[in-house]
What we know:
single chain, alpha/beta, Rossmann fold, five-stranded parallel beta sheet, four-stranded mixed beta sheet, 8 helices, 14 strands, flat
Amino acid sequence: MGAGPETRVGLCAGRSLDLVAGILGILKSGAAYLPLDPDYPAGRLAHMLDDARPVAVLAQSGPLPGLPEGVPALCFDDPALDREPPGDPAPRALPGHPAVIGVITSPTGAVIRDILHRIAERWPCRVIVWPCVVQGDAAAAQVAAAVQGFDAMTPDGPIPRPDVLIVARGGGSVEDLWAFNDEALARAVAEARIPIISAVGHETDTTLIDFVSDRRAPTPTGAAEMATPVLADLKAAVADMERRLFRCGSRVLEDRRTRLRAAARGLPARPEDLIALAQQRLDHASSRLSSGLTRNAAIHERELVRAASRLTPGLLMRPIRHQAERLGSLDARMAGALGRVIPREADRLGRISRLYESLNPDGPLKRGFARVHAEDGALVRSAAALQSGQPVRLVFEDGDRQAVVDGASAPPPPRKAKPAAKADQGDLF
């Protein structure tokens, strides 16, 4: 039930249930049931629980999702029922050979003794018991805390985390088992990472944790059998596999022995007979080798004599003389070509040298001229580019000097008078 002042609950009822409504509310002393008339109009019914909390029921006869048209139903209207179910709804597989088993039950009842006896008989392993009460108001909280405590353990901790959990309690009435219908306990079981076996009550008893656990056992002893294999059966299976392995190995060895004997029958009695034929072939080839080498050498000797008979001094000197004549002709032609090319190239080289001297900026310096450079190094090409008081640099053949422009432009130097013509010089005209 929700914690609000008014909660509307109900169950769906179909024709297969003779159109009877289900549980209206669970009282502390038991369950209250109300019949549902198919012809009852939609409206509200009020019912008071024994703790003075009102419960309202809304009856509907219209179509609902998942129900055929005309089927009456009581509709749940509890916000707590709309929450998402925790965890993966798919049940987890139980470990085949658990090393540690956790048991959550009362430490004083017969249930724990039955579980320990059955585990010791089938699969002796480590069992960790988390004692808690399994009946009363504090039972649900203690069982939920035990589930969460086991789930919080680590596999390599001082107390290893169990491989599987058993939540067990003996049979009893609905009120005795009501702690296992707690929502918080059901969510703790669903959110646990360890596979959980629910063994609450007898086979006919059903609680909420039966639906969220990974496996439901009809009795606590059945839960111990679900969680453990039978050690004797495993030993018998291992022994059977060992016998089968021995038989298979013996069969393989006998098969290989038979094949080896069959192969040995195909071999000669003495090992020397294996190489006798090859030794005969080797002796025959070695006896023919000496005569073959002698015959081969004689054939090559005859071919050498036949080739040497054609080699005469005149035949050998003929190409030598021909190449000597050709070399003399090429030498004469090369001498004439060099006599013509060398003077022509020497004259060309002289012209290039004179051209270089004429284009050399330092050439006029050797004839007494000087270059004028401004303060920034630029060449001064005209007197108009200079101003009075401007520093300049004069470059001569043997060095440079700093100077300052002073005064106006100097008058051009007077031209020298041409010498008079000699009296005895004749007149061309």
